[in-house]
Amino acid sequence: MTPPPAHGPAGLVTDGPADLLVTGCTALTHGPDGEISFVEDAAVVVRDGVVVAVTGTAAVAGLAAAERIDGSGTVALPGLVNCHTHAPMAALRGIADDVPADEWFNDWIWPIESELTERAVELGARLACAEMIRGGVTTFADHYFAMDTVAAVIEETGLRAVLGQAYFSSQGPEGRAASLDFALRRRGTAGGRITTCLAPHAPYTVDEDDLAATAELAREHGLLVHTHAAESRAQTDNSLARYGRTPIEILERAGLLEGDLLIAHATGLDAARDLPVLRRATGRVAVATAPRTYLKFAWDTTPVRALRDIGIPVGLATDGAASNNTLDVWESMTLTALLQKYVERDPAWLTGRQALHHATLQSARAVGLGERVGSLAAGRRADLVLVDLTGPHTQPVHDLAATLVHSARSSDVRTTIVDGRVLMRDRQLLTVDVPAVVRELAELLPALVDRNHGKRIQKYEA
Amino acid sequence: MTPPPAHGPAGLVTDGPADLLVTGCTALTHGPDGEISFVEDAAVVVRDGVVVAVTGTAAVAGLAAAERIDGSGTVALPGLVNCHTHAPMAALRGIADDVPADEWFNDWIWPIESELTERAVELGARLACAEMIRGGVTTFADHYFAMDTVAAVIEETGLRAVLGQAYFSSQGPEGRAASLDFALRRRGTAGGRITTCLAPHAPYTVDEDDLAATAELAREHGLLVHTHAAESRAQTDNSLARYGRTPIEILERAGLLEGDLLIAHATGLDAARDLPVLRRATGRVAVATAPRTYLKFAWDTTPVRALRDIGIPVGLATDGAASNNTLDVWESMTLTALLQKYVERDPAWLTGRQALHHATLQSARAVGLGERVGSLAAGRRADLVLVDLTGPHTQPVHDLAATLVHSARSSDVRTTIVDGRVLMRDRQLLTVDVPAVVRELAELLPALVDRNHGKRIQKYEA
User: Fold this and answer.
1) How many beta-carbon contacts under 8 Å exist across A and B?
2) Rounded CA gap, A235 and A237, in Å?
3) How many domains in chain B?
4) Is A243 helix (H, G, I), strand (E, B) or coil?
5) Do A123 and A145 share a domain, yes or no?
6) Is residue B5 part of a domain?
7) pLDDT of residue B91
8) Residue A53 · residue A378 · CB < 8 Å
9) Does the beta-carbon distance from A327 to B135 stay under 8 Å?
10) Residues A39 and A106 occupy one common structural domain
């Protein structure tokens, strides 16, 4: 614990009443090299959706504020970032468990997605937003279909999102064009809470010409590209057999490593071939890891340590609820810490503080928002959560990082704030009516999961 | 889903008013071969601490009851069983993270335990009970010191427990004698909620003569023996190097496999040597698995599939909070499902229903209570929990087993009942004052964690 420094330019705190003032919490802050420290009895001052200062509670005595939150007994963290999900798939949570990935795709998900309706996307996305707000997620990177519908849900729920309209080469050039059209129309909307990207599905469903054209469009329009690659070792082996190149080598050849690129999963990296390729990337390349999904599919996990050694940030993710069953980024943080120790056979690797670094700065960088969110600091967007540590399962506190990563869980998030707006207060959601969503979704489900039509949006033979 | 059968002898339901009546829930029940099914719109009728019937809500219309609980939106499960923990170590939660097991023992836990006070044991145990009640645990098997103090906490908190006073051979025969004395004095106390066992620490701290004498005492007094064995592969290798026998072979030679035996961990089994030994055990032998602890120490996990193949039940556990950071048996269930898929490289192995089987019947059997708890059925003790599935993270429900194992979490337990007594209602603890425990514990902590005395209860060189 360190004494409370004044993180914001002091003058600004007294520039007039705050819009939101959180007092009495312990605040997680980052030092100049990203090192994590905890400021006790801290205050967070918010004005115009931005953090004005993280300072001591005593320093804001007498400051007027339109809205006040007593943060006693809580830790204030930067809101969590879900670096890779398919929010609307919350509607398919638990539909195909205990099956291998090829069966999951071919017998369940891709048949169902061939008849997906906008209404199902809307309700699934709304349910996902409710779950994420309750779990302390303030930003998510979504890669799916009917993204205008998802964007509308973002407008309404108040979350921040990085949205990309997915496409396959089987759609022809129209798929890529629609993804670009979406990205250009929607970027900066929802009061700036929506950023956008191009979203080719994966190197096994999008051909090299299409990927190269995507890289060119991304460069031209300054867009992030978000794609799946090397999801499993089997995909890498099949790619080598089919093309003589790994999925990562295909991305490189297409020019995608020269721009901003978010790679989902990368559990199937070929260390000898792929690490040198990623090391020489000239763009801002990052990986999103969703460890629960990998365990469920009995896949390897993302090689976090090898990626750190070559300077690639690894952000936390949940994938969609149809594979991951939760959109619980807190759980991803915990599982990343646990599983990395296990696979590296090193209990001292991936400490609590390292896990928190992945959950904050690295995740924000991964989705292209490294300058705007991911840290509680003056000038950043006011995306934060208050985590209640008064429960018996989080007491006593010998080491706060350990408590957060290994004892606390997403249900301990008491309050979730995006752009200074409270989306959940004391566990009460303020922008989503969950019972209504659940009721309407129940009516749609029989049609949604009916696979008698015999169609399939793709065939998985990666 | 199956139509609601009347599980209890129908006559009993109308024998007069119920003490407790839960209506409108979905109830998890077991068929004759232990197969799991879910009864919709179910009622659980409790009288004198025992389940009289699990039947349809309609069948109990008009039945008088001293206490009623509306179970709408919840699933009623048998209360969870924590098959191996050290409850008082909740006081040391998170004290030594990110370190290997030998450092954890030698530099932290065993120095601290050499100066343990009864007051610290009492407060730690009370905190642990609060956490477990909130997490849906109704029974735990505890293996620790100062167990009279833990027994007193059981009296007061209302939980069920299987208690054993731990001993090392370094204590001389007095250690074993004290364990026996405790077991005989305390068994059947707390209104029958306390059962007891003999608790030799492990084959690397209790010598063969001591173990053989323990086996003899267990036989003479009809007691379960609860011990650690083959906690890690390193222990097995060291045991082979030192004695020419694995820890399991040592247990066999001591005669412990001829009686009721609960083995904690067994992650370091030597498949070729130990599985045949366990297969020919004539006693009721079971294993407790605490997967979170193994991940943290970068150990292998319990070979659940191999144990199933030879008929050894595997119960769920958390170990103590000093290694595991939580006493969350729900998390152990989820992690067992996930990690077993991964280590067996089989996504179809350890299905949701299998995980629920471990959490119910197998866990109850593991702690020697297979006839009394672990299933919602007429004649069993009324130990049950109501799990709220209305949250966005548990909706929609396509497959209830998947929802319970992979989407729900311990914080969804709304109500916890032991022997028909409500210990938590709507998340409110009724038998533990958590703020008081936390406050008093905070005062003790500086002395508790001071290691300047230079003492150590044991040296870990297993």
Assistant:
1) 185
2) 5
3) 2
4) helix
5) yes
6) no
7) 96
8) yes
9) no
10) no
